[in-house]
Amino acid sequence: MKVISGTLKGRNIIGFDTPGTRPTMDRVKESLFGMIQDYIKGSTVLDLFSGSGNLGIEAISNGAKYCYFIDHSVDAIKVIKENTHNFNIMDKCNIILSDWKKALNSFKGMKFDIIFVDPPYEYDVYEKVMNKVNELELLNKNGLIILEHANLKLKDTYDNLSLYKSKKYGNKTVNVYKLH
């Protein structure tokens, strides 16, 4: 895995190969960041189910000012710490060992510009996460929540979040929802 664009372009991201995780493929990541490029610069990002930190690192490389990395796996947290240390971006991130629900609840009162939701595919929590983000009002106006999933049939709207863009890549789909 490599950083595909921005200030860290071409640098290797240490992978994370624990059962149940799978990194976002480079072509999917490149397309995804093309879809959201106008929203990244100066943004505050939440990388939920971070794994190796791949998406949050890419966001920082492209100008995000800060990223919160969340994962419930001690091994994943070690990998994220190693990656952020290797890229010298520790001052732009907070790495938190937590499950998704506790993490989201702990952010009550905070606002994010971009939230990445990329759990293991068999861990179908997408609608629960969308509802919790809405309930806690965690997105800034025009904020984005990006879901990477195994071609599930998700709704076009979740309260005040509407499907903004969607792209299918073989056995996976990326949905981008926008807060209005």
Describe this structure in words.
- It is a single chain.
- This protein is α/β, with parallel strands linked by helices and 180 residues long.
- It has one domain: Rossmann fold, CATH 3.40.50.150.
- The protein is built from 5 helices and 8 strands.
- The protein has an 8-stranded mixed sheet.
- Helix 5 (126-136) links the parallel strand 4 (112-117) and strand 5.
- Helix 4 (100-106) runs parallel beside helix 5 (126-136).
- The longest helix is centred in the first third of the chain and has 15 residues, at 26-40.
- The protein starts with 25 loop residues before the first helix and ends with a strand.
- The relative contact order is 0.17.
- The model has no long low-confidence stretch (mean pLDDT 93).
Provide a short characterization of the protein structure.
With 180 residues, the chain is an alpha/beta fold.
Task: Provide the fold topology.
Layout: H1 26-40, E1 44-48, H2 54-61, E2 66-71, H3 74-86, E3 93-97, H4 100-106, E4 112-117, H5 126-136, E5 139-149, E6 157-158, E7 161-169, E8 172-179
Parallel strand pairs: 1-2, 1-4, 2-3, 4-5
Antiparallel strand pairs: 5-8, 6-7, 7-8
Helix pairs in contact: 4-5
Average of the residue pLDDT scores: 93
The shape, in one word, is globular
Query: How is the largest sheet built, in terms of strand order?
Result: 3-2-1-4-5-8-7-6
In total, the number of strands is 8
- The helix tally amounts to 5
Q: Which CATH top level class fits?
A: Alpha Beta
Strand content: 25-35%
What is the H-and-E element order? HEHEHEHEHEEEE
CATH-defined superfamily: Vaccinia Virus protein VP39
- Give the C-alpha Rg: 15 Å
- Can you tell me the CATH architecture? 3-Layer(aba) Sandwich
